[in-house]
Amino acid sequence: MTVKGKKVDTGSVTDTPLATQTTADEINKKDIQDVKDLGNTTDPSVTYVNSSKSVNIRGLEADRVLTTVDGIPVPYFYDNIYGYGGGADTFDFNSLSTVGVLHGADSSRVGSGALGGALVMRTLEPQDLLGPGKTFGGMTKLGYDGSDRSFTGSAAIAKKVENTSIMFQSSYKYGHETKGTGTVDTNGSTRTKADPLTETQRNFLFKIRQELEAGHTIGVTGEHYGYDSTKDYRSNASYGTTYQAGHLNAIQDKTRDRISLDYKYDSPEKDSLIDSGAATLYWQHSERNEGTSSIRLSRPVGLYERLMDSDEQAYGLTGYLNSNFNTGPLRHAVTVGGDVSFSQTSYYLSGQDSCSVTYVAACASYHTNQSYAPDVNGYKFGVYIEDKITAGDSPVSLTPGLRFDWYRYDPQNSASWEANSGYSGLPDSTSASHLSPKLRAAWQATPDVELFVQFSSAFKAPNEYQMYVDYANPTYSYRTIGNPDLKPESSYGFDAGANLGDDEFGGRLAAFTTRYKNFIDGSVAYNTGYSNGETSYFNRNRVRISGVEASAHKTFSIGITLHGSLAYARGTDLDTDEVLSTVAPVKAIVGVGYDTEHWGTDATLVAAGSVDKDSTAKTKPAGYGVVNLTGWYEPEKAKGLRIQGGIYNLFDKQYYDALEVKDVNNANALYSEAGRYFKISLTQKF
Q: DSSP of 586-611, one letter per residue?
């Protein structure tokens, strides 16, 4: 991945040498359909972890990596009781213009959640589809992915009339389970063949932009993402015994909707006090509905259903301004920004049983149709300033920055919360604030060589679930209880590296070490009240993650391109000396490609090391190497048409993603990654 030559908005989250960016053109050329593809083609430091439904950057995942779409945070829902939750999976790559990855603990611009970094996505704008001098343009795409036998269709069109631009984008996907290399087609815990699954995904994006005089642009954005899946849960240990075979389904439905008013400013004057800026006023509603539905064979016989509904509705404003000016011999590039939001969050478990028909003693322990945590009103406010200072035309710059964040959680009473079996009143409100300083020094040694070193800090506020969950089951003697006294997680770290070269010959190198404090973790205590365990949350004292990231590429005049990238990190609990299981083993992507004007091909090796023997992971898979072979063709007589295809895992190797099986005891081939498969897509631009 190269950074030079890619447009980055001044003052944006990715306007830093610690960020990398993948454009829509690269997404199409490499047929990147999700974050997992991104980590296997472009950036090995990024992994999508399906088990936690989150992005992992530099060994951290879940809500320790912030995900934003057009500057709007995507919420992460937490559930320790049933193992549901997630959030960084409610967007469609077909709707994106760029995908930025902020590497490292840096809350100076984005606030809470960027302990590992941030996944920063920008959706398509009308001008992305309009060629130079054109007033109408668009793109259609059809694709097939053999790993899950999915078909995807997408289309986007844009029209400009004088100073008004309109765009509409939509996509639809229909697919099945990802086929691993397991072949045992039994029911229960001995099964290794992937459970049958059917899924659909849809996305709609609408934008209208009005260019005004003096560099101002205003607009409206509407977005909808939806996903539904049903899995025949044959690998469940109770399939065919406690639950009727063919009637134990795992269900996942998730949606994200937003409407925003958008503003952008680029000064037409060179000596303007404000050079550029952007702001977004938004409403966003995110919801996940996950659980199981079945026919129970044990008493009470009949319908059985458990569905956890996680919901957040948020209103917010985010934005920034850029100003360039001089004070004596010093040149300043100042960015000032901030955000404010109000959210309403709820966790509700619905359920159905046949207890009203056949009551048995176990019915007393079915705690359904109640909230597992009180509804919470959340208030967040953050403001920051950053100043890039240079002396005249010196190639050396110093960039200090500081951010202030404040948050408050107000639990709310409700009938569903009072119905909770562990209800003992309404928890107290909680508030806290945090300062996040940053200092970066950079040297533009030559136009193609930038060296940098940075000190940065970050924090993550405890989420509502960790603070207020209360689920008690006295009948079976276990409980999960939140901790309203949790402290925010915090970190400080150092990065040093270089961005080198250009699109033809260059690379990137970064080394980092970060110390974390007050890591939020869960512990289980066994006592007379809850002999089967009481899970609660606490703050770990000290954790350290260090590593290195590197990438390089070289394109020769004869059309051959060599490329490679590597990511290595190691995380340790400094109090217990345990190796953190969330830190992936060393991973590298190396390849060679050949391109002509109308066709090209690429062979890539994706390799990963084995899990450290001292890791806390429950399954420690060996390393692997997987070969992918891809190619593309653009017919000379069919302008704008691109045919792309590839064979992945060419040698049908059985291997495991270490982050997917870290919490699985003795994972078998049921958890293996996809065997050999092919992908093909047809894209038409007009």
A: PEEEEEEEEE-SSEEEEEEEEEE-PP
User: Within 13 Å and on the Cβ side, how many CA atoms surround 177?
Assistant: 19
CA-nearest of 294, 405, 403, 433 to 354 is 294
Rounded distance, CA 547 to CA 536, Å? 31
Do you find a cis peptide bond into 300, omega within 30 degrees of 0?
A: yes
Q: Which amino acid is at 65?
A: V
**Which residue type, as a one-letter code, is found at position 327?**
T
Question: CA 27 to CA 141: how far, in whole Å?
Answer: 12
- Report whether 329 contacts 322 (CB < 8 A): no
For the record, the structure tokens of 284 come out as 């966003």
Q: State the Cα–Cα distance between residues 430 and 486, nearest whole angstrom.
A: 10
- Give the whole-angstrom CA distance, residue 73 versus residue 113: 10
What whole-number distance in Å separates Cα of residue 419 and Cα of residue 373?
Answer: 11
In angstroms, the CA 375 to CA 410 distance is 8
Residues 6+ apart with CB under 8 A from 235: 187, 188, 189, 191, 195, 670
Q: Give 227-287 as a DSSP string.
A: EEEEEE-TTSTTBTTTEEEEEEEEEEEEEEEEEEEEEEEE-SSTT-S--EEEEEEEEEEEE
Q: Can you give the length of the chain in residues?
A: 686
Pairing of strands 624-633, 470-473: unpaired
| CA distances, 288 to each of 90, 256, 308, 656 (Å) | 10, 9, 8, 27
What pLDDT does residue 156 have?
Answer: 97
Smallest CA-to-CA distance from 99 within 140, 68, 139 is with 68
The pLDDT assigned to 503 comes to 86
Task: Burial-class residue 469 by CB neighbours within 10 Å (0-12, 13-18, 19+).
Answer: buried
Q: Kindly report the CA angle at 107 between 104 and 113, in degrees rounded to 5? A: 85
Q: How far apart are CA 327 and CA 495, in angstroms?
A: 29
Give the C-alpha separation, 446 to 236, whole Å.
60
CB 373 within 8 A of CB 322: no
Question: Cα(551)–Cα(509) distance, rounded to whole angstroms?
Answer: 7
DSSP state of 367: -
Mean pLDDT in consecutive groups of 10 residues from the start of the chain, 686 residues: 53 88 88 92 92 91 94 90 82 94 91 93 95 91 97 97 97 97 96 98 98 96 98 96 95 97 94 94 97 94 94 97 95 96 95 89 85 95 97 94 96 92 87 95 95 95 91 80 91 95 93 93 77 84 93 96 97 89 95 95 97 93 97 93 96 96 94 96 95
Q: Report angle CA 22, 25, 29 to the nearest 5 degrees.
A: 100
pLDDT (0 to 100) of residue 2: 30
